Amino acid sequence: MSTPALGERVPDWALGSLLLAGTISIAGITDYFLTRAGYEMVGTVIWTLAYGAAFAVVWFVWLRHIDLTGPESG
């Protein structure tokens, strides 16, 4: 991924770290506040959707292009 302002490529580990930190922050904080407000089920749904979305991003950005088949001959 390139940043338009800098014109340089952002390393994949930095994007992964940002995704991880954002997922934990958004899912955890939202779940905490909704649970404290009495909306336990909504908090759980938000937490599940946030982690599911992060998994989908990891799949489409980094894992989708990997060939997971074994060798043709055994």
From TrEMBL:
<protein>
    <submittedName>
        <fullName>Uncharacterized protein</fullName>
    </submittedName>
</protein>
<keyword id="KW-1133">Transmembrane helix</keyword>
<feature type="transmembrane region" description="Helical">
    <location>
        <begin position="41"/>
        <end position="62"/>
    </location>
</feature>
<dbReference type="InterPro" id="IPR058309">
    <property type="entry name" value="DUF7996"/>
</dbReference>
<keyword id="KW-0812">Transmembrane</keyword>
<dbReference type="Pfam" id="PF25959">
    <property type="entry name" value="DUF7996"/>
</dbReference>
<feature type="transmembrane region" description="Helical">
    <location>
        <begin position="13"/>
        <end position="34"/>
    </location>
</feature>
<keyword id="KW-0472">Membrane</keyword>
